[in-house]
Amino acid sequence: MHTQLAATDAANQALQAAQVAVQREQDKLDATRQQVSQYRSVAVDSAIDAYTHAGGHAVLDIIGAKNLSEFSQREMYISTLMSNDRDALDSLRGALQDESVEQARLAKARDLTKQRRKDAGDKLRALAQQLKIQAALHGALDARIADDAAEAEAAADSEGNVQALLAKAQGPAAATTAAVAGPTSAAGLIWPCHGPLTSPFGMRWGRMHQGQDIACGYGTAIHAAKAGSVVFAGVMSGYGNVVIVDHGAGFSTLYAHQSRMAVHQGQHVNQGDVIGYVGSTGHSTGPHLHFETRFGGQARNPIPYLPK
How far apart are CA 106 and CA 17, in angstroms? Predict the structure, then answer.
């Protein structure tokens, strides 16, 4: 963007310099044309005078001299007049040559100005297009931020419902077993679907993002990460279509934003069973699986519990 601005500024400066050069050459040409006009007037007057006297004026002046001294003075005067006529013609010829040269220079300066005006226009249009694209990108980014913030807000609003549901399904023993869920190698999970990892577990837009988003394509089958019992299969606020599987010992997994669910509440599922399909229901910015791992109802980062 800075490069585009610099290029536009440089093009405008070059155009201004070319316009100054055109004006300078125009001024020179105007001055020369004025000289041409003056020299032409002198030459015309001389020609008229010569035509009027038909070449005899000088002879009559000399013949009319009363003495040698006057003769000599008149002859010198006539010589001076003839010399002045030649000078006037030479000056006119030189001025006309200057006019021709300066006309060529002015034409060249105008051509350069025309080219630089085009260059400046091209740079300005490119800058305008760049600004337009940048504005569109800013708009898209702002819209995405707003969507992500809304999704985080909706997920946070659903947190209480998820915890209450799991507390009811797992009973009071869940909280006491949460601390002994075991290290990653003991979790025994598989990936529910395979795709790029997008929004991770943690704070997002001032709200806690309780799971890991996996960008699986729309309609991709979602597999149970571990065997267990379906304690919820339905619509839940920002989660959209969501399935929650209780694996025992206070450990559960959650699969949100499904396009379609393939299980029902109370159903037992084995590890790898299809429990639904990836979608974008609820507050979602696009098709993906929002996957959570919970211990005693509390969400934890799923990544350490999934295969490397």
Answer: 14
- Angstrom CA distances, 285 to 156, 214, 293, stand at 16, 13, 21
For 139-175, write each residue's pLDDT tens digit. 766 666 666 666 666 666 566 566 666 666 666 544 4
Which of the given ranges, 14-18, 40-44, 62-66, 298-302, has the highest pLDDT on average?
298-302
Domains and CATH numbers, the chain: 2-141 (1.10.287.620), 171-305 (2.70.70.10)
Instruction: Quote the tokens at residue 256.
Output: 């949100």
Tell me the pLDDT tens digit for each residue of 94-136.
666 766 777 777 678 677 777 877 777 777 777 777 777 777 7
Task: Name the residue with higher pLDDT: 276 or 181.
Answer: 276
